[in-house]
Design brief:
The complex is a heterodimer of chains A (about 120) and B (about 140). Chain A is mostly helical and about 120 residues long. Chain A has a single domain, classed as Fumarate reductase/succinate dehydrogenase, transmembrane subunit (3 helical TM bundles of succinate and fumarate reductases, Up-down Bundle). In chain A, about 80% of the residues lie in helices and about 0% in strands. The N and C termini of chain A lie far apart (about 60 Å). Chain B is mainly α. Chain B has a single domain, classed as Fumarate reductase/succinate dehydrogenase, transmembrane subunit (3 helical TM bundles of succinate and fumarate reductases, Up-down Bundle). In chain B, about 75% of the residues lie in helices and about 0% in strands. The N terminus of chain B is likely disordered. The chains are: A mainly alpha (about 120), B mainly alpha (about 140).
Chain lengths: ~120, ~140
């Protein structure tokens, strides 16, 4: 038996899984919304607004957006880790991306519950 | 390969250690299979979609806020340049979506061998490009 000490930050599997779970949530949401819109006889502001008036749909949309932001964080972080070599610049980009995504979360709540 | 051999000969003739490892990748000489293009375009489209997030959230905000902002938005979006930008984003989304489904299928062992995975990468390109054209024509 090989006793190997595993090193690292241990976020690999969790993020690998999170990337797939968030992708599945987003895919289902997109198919539901596109399917709903295709079933409507006509499209206008009323149809669009009605879709987002129920609390269930607002919650589902918020879940979609949170999945999107988490998914985007993992993806962008991986891209930055691959191509940006200087540690300082890499850290700076990571911080800016996190801050932007947090602002998007607040903005999403304002859009969905402030309309 | 030739530079490696010449380096080897140099090393033998001049009695001095010379590092002959390639220092860069000649990107224009590297041949990628279609799945390689699907993969790098998955990255590119993902990055593009991330950068477009503020614009997309703004569109959602303006489209829901009131009938006035909605009407204004439809007028703005009639501009050909904005339509073209949205068409680009539509392709980015469709490619990212289809390529992502392919990766999920691979993870779930639904594409058990190289031939199936390669055929799926053709489908990704075909479906995402066709849908972009069809939706583009429909929305134009």
């Amino acid at each position: 038996m090989v006793n190997r000490t595993v090193t690292g930050a241990h976020y690999g599997l969790r993020d690998w899984l999170a990337q797939r779970v968030t992708a599945a949530v987003m895919a289902i949401y997109v198919l539901v919304v596109v399917g709903y819109l295709l079933m409507q006889p006509s499209f206008g502001y009323d149809t669009w607004l009605e879709l987002f008036t129920s609390n269930v749909m607002r919650t589902f949309t918020m879940l979609f957006l949170l999945s999107l932001f988490y998914h985007a964080w993992i993806g962008v972080r991986d891209i930055v880790m691959d191509y940006v070599k200087p540690a300082g610049i890499r850290l700076l980009i990571h911080v800016l991306v996190i801050l932007a995504l947090l602002v998007y979360v607040i903005w999403s709540v304002q859009i969905l519950w402030g309309m | 390969m030739t530079h490696r051999i010449s380096g080897f000969i140099k090393k033998m003739t001049i009695n001095k250690p010379i590092k002959t490892r390639p220092k860069h990748l000649a990107l224009h000489k590297i041949y990628l299979p279609l799945s390689g293009y699907v993969s790098i375009l998955h990255r590119v489209s993902g990055a593009v979609l991330f950068l477009a997030l503020p614009l997309l959230l703004l569109l959602l905000d303006q489209s829901l806020r009131s009938i006035e902002t909605y009407t204004n938005l439809t007028e703005y979006l009639a501009h050909p340049l904005l339509k073209l930008a949205l068409l680009g984003l539509l392709w980015a989304f469709l490619h990212h979506f289809c390529a992502g489904l392919r990766y999920l299928a691979i993870d779930l062992h639904l594409l058990p061998n190289l031939d199936a995975a390669r055929a799926a990468s053709k489908w990704v390109m075909a479906v995402s490009l066709t849908l972009t054209v069809v939706l583009g024509v429909k929305l134009w």
